[in-house]
Amino acid sequence: MKQTIVVKIGGRVVEPGGAPALARDIGSLVACGLRVVVVHGGGTQISAALAGTGREPRFIDGLRVTSPDDIALLREAMLSINAELVQRLTAANVRAVGLAGDEDNLLQAEVERHDLGLVGRITSVDGSALCVLLDNGVTPVVAAMGAGPNGTLNVNADTAAAAVATALQAEKLIVLSDVSGIYEEIGQPDTRMARPESGQLQSLLEKGALSGGMVPKVTALLAAINGGVGSVSIVDGRSPGAALRAAFGLAEGTEVVA
């Protein structure tokens, strides 16, 4: 049975210039015989779209506050990123198909917290639909949005990737971010945690030692490990070859093993 790897791509990683190299890396993983699922966010692009309408982005505990007026812009930005990624992967000889998480109940969700507005917590993943594609040599590219009871919900991409990896019981989840791992002290590169135990990360969360987007990132990491995913790596995805190195345990970053 081929190994399954889920690659989460953050919005800053797919900014102009980064997508072609990233597509080549994923193409190399597929050429190595790995089953790859891509899950992407679009934080910077969504913020830019909102700013263009005069709306100031707001975050609570690293999660974007999302109003009903924001959803259409958010979805448009996510689908644009999805289409670009599929195009780049196709150019890198990868058979890729774009999927919106809020369609066909791929990622079902419910409202996370009322103070966040239309932000969803994933309740189920249609892993069988993803497996059909993987079994046929196709790489799914999933836009992190959830199908809620009353329409689309904004879903944190780290959380979505962890849920997908858990549903597929993936051997590895690789989180390509704009940081080089998890740090015990914010802003102190020499405190990077190379191979922490899950208990150490849980302690950082409980002590409030993490801030911003690192809170949902580490929470998702722990959920994946506790859900049966073999290992999770957080690496700087802006570095060419980062996904390849992480897949084979050679990347500088943070790796947590079950």
Structural class: alpha/beta
What is the number of strand segments?
A: 13
Shape: globular
Report Rg. 17 Å
The total of helices stands at: 8
Separation of termini? 20 Å
The sequence of SSEs as H and E is EHEHEEHEEEHEEEHEHHEHE
Question: How would you describe what is shown here?
Answer:
By secondary structure, this protein is of the alpha/beta class. The chain is built from eight helices and 13 strands. The strands form four sheets. Strands 5-8-2-1-11-12-13 form a seven-stranded mixed β-sheet, sandwiched between helices. A two-stranded antiparallel ribbon has the order 3-4. It has a two-stranded antiparallel sheet with strand order 6-7. It is globular. The model has no long low-confidence stretch (mean pLDDT 90).
List the helices and strands and how they pair.
Blueprint: E1 4-9, H1 19-31, E2 35-40, H2 43-51, E3 59-60, E4 63-64, H3 68-91, E5 96-100, E6 107-111, E7 120-125, H4 127-135, E8 139-143, E9 145-148, E10 151-154, H5 157-168, E11 172-177, H6 198-207, H7 214-226, E12 231-236, H8 242-247, E13 253-257
Parallel strand pairs: 1-2, 1-11, 2-8, 5-8, 11-12
Antiparallel strand pairs: 3-4, 6-7, 9-10, 12-13
Helix pairs in contact: 1-3, 2-3, 5-7, 6-7
Q: Summary?
A:
The chain is α/β, with parallel strands linked by helices.
Task: Name its key features.
258 residues, alpha/beta, 7-stranded mixed sheet, two-stranded antiparallel ribbon, 8 helices, 37% helix, globular
